[in-house]
Amino acid sequence: MDTPPKTIAHARTLLDTGELTACELAEGYLARIEQRKDLHAYLEVFDDVREQARAADVRIAAGESHPLLGIPLAVKDNILIEGRVASSASKMLEGYRATYDATVVRKLKGEGAVFLGRTNMDEFAMGSSTENSAFGCTRNPLDPTRVPGGSSGGSAAAVAADAALAALGSDTGGSIRQPAAFCGVVGLKPTYGSVSRSGLMAMGSSLDVIGPLARSVRDAELLFGAIRGADSLDATTVPDTAPRISPRERYTIGVPRSFVEQGVDPDVHAAFEQGLTALRDAGHRVVDVSLPTLAQALATYYIIMPAEVSANLARFDGVRYGLHGDGGSRIGDYKRSRGAGFGPEPRRRILLGTYVLSSGYYDAYYGQAMRARECIRHDIQGVFETVDAIATPTTPTPAFKVGEKTSDPLAMYLEDIFTVSANIIGVPALSVPHGTLVRDGVTLPVGFQLMAPELGEATLFTLGAVLTGEGS
Ligand code: GLN
Q1: 395 contacts 178 by C-beta, under 8 angstroms
Q2: Is the distance from the beta carbon of residue 172 to the nearest atom of ligand 1 less than 6 Å?
């Protein structure tokens, strides 16, 4: 393999025609991972990649063909693969080995995908830069002095650097779309419940979803098709019989103008406008919409999410999972283990979460956030009665420098301003690269985000393909 295949679809053709074997493909990716070690996209490259590829070749030779058979993928470190370490990039789970496969992993194994390794991330998926990893940050392949975004920064960097054909990430408030935007790849946050969370380490259970990072919209669609579906192990999954929105020829796209025009980098805004023009040129209608509650989405997210984080991370008590610190008593053990296991960002969020849930403040914060969540849902659903999709930039800025925002958590949280709404109300959203800008002489990508009503992934794929030039 001299040059890596451009997409999964391309690799599929090469594998099916026998031009390339899964072993050769895997070998090429292992070499590429080694070459781009400087990026620190992977926390571990698996020792059985060649074995997995050989098994795929046997299945291909036997005439089997699945879209992902023999395709080398990377997996975020918070998704369980039986027998493998899954650490969520935390000291707390440094040596923790998964005892079962996440449902998505079971499905991909069934298809014969080849898992290259586990990718770096912000600790327990909390962050927007991968700098919160307990094992060192990942670098942006397009400019290694910049962050790849987060929390699925390792997955995005691996795909962008051709060190994986595609990857899995998780998105609680933007963690697939924002790194996809920073690294110039495609990222899909599926409808809440359309992909099983079984085997995904919980961050905010009412917000979390697993999704693909890929080199094309078509690839993201393929990967989504392989992992989606109802699951008896996750009671929040959507039944397979639920009606999905079918693709159409012409769409109406709503732009929340006043929201989009505030605090967005002018070059990002210019790229966004070019994207709208491309959609118009392809025959779609672009209209202005008013979504006044979007201005409250970030504050709402930063109450609901830490509340759920504080509950979900209570399981790390030094007894059942991961790190154990001896403190001489049960409470002592608890303090020692959690004190040593969690980095600053999980601690900050656990503190925030327990505060907003505490009896004296519950109504003022958590209760209020739940009411705000309903207002946001009502507002966006109202707009979806007149438009098929809502467009915004994915992020207000391009990839920022390593270290630029680490001492200012609020500046970091502002990165999520456009992405959190989709999680708050559970609808799907896609980030596609569209347009570029130049910083310090380096060309950087810009992400264009599209949000659709529940189970409207097909709308996103059709419109996203227009923006990436994959449209017919
Ligand atoms: N950047 C957001 C946060 O820090 C999103 C995280 C995520 O989606 N996992 O909470």
Answers
A1: yes
A2: yes
